[in-house]
Amino acid sequence: MTIRHAIKRKKWMDLAWLTLYYVKFFALMPLKLGFFGALKFHFFLRVFEGTWFVVVTQSNHVVMDVSEDDTKLSWFRMQLKATCNIDDSYFNDWFTGHLNFQIEHHLFPMMPRHNLYKIQPDVLELCRKYNIQYLSKPMGRAFLDI
């Protein structure tokens, strides 16, 4: 979220938190790194964060085989065809911010991410019942696929 976006959408609490972050960051970091060092560090953080986000999200989406013919599928089937999960583990949950449960995230987008694992058994049961593929991969395989 950018400051401009927060102002445009009148998200005053978000604007306050963003402002507090930048004030704190640029009040403290230059003491240790100097002003230009703080700018470089901030840039490095954003590059790292952006790269991490792209790798995590693309490993669940880009590799899926979706075609124009799939528009005839039901919404539920389309969600399962358009995305996959990364296998559940403590590390994968932490590293992906619980976005390793991408199937459940697409089916229940408003559910807090840290609760997505709770609905997974029900989704798996529905997939078994209606013979719908439910794809979950090891993290290494998902990263290699992209």
From TrEMBL:
Q: Membrane topology for this entry?
A: Multi-pass membrane protein
Where is this gene product found?
Membrane
Bilayer-crossing residues are 21-39
GO CC, sorted alphabetically, is: membrane
Lineage top rank: taxon: Eukaryota
Quote the Pfam families the UniProt record gives: FA_desaturase (PF00487)
**Residue span, Fatty acid desaturase domain:** 7-136
Among the GO biological process terms of this entry, one is: lipid metabolic process
Q: Give GO terms: molecular function aspect only.
A: oxidoreductase activity, acting on paired donors, with oxidation of a pair of donors resulting in the reduction of molecular oxygen to two molecules of water
What are the record keywords, sorted? Lipid metabolism, Membrane, Oxidoreductase, Transmembrane, Transmembrane helix
Family that this chain belongs to: Belongs to the fatty acid desaturase type 1 family.
Against PANTHER family, the record matches this protein to: DELTA(5) FATTY ACID DESATURASE FAT-4, FATTY ACID DESATURASE 2
- Indicate what this protein is called per its UniProt record: Fatty acid desaturase domain-containing protein
This chain's source organism reads Rotaria socialis
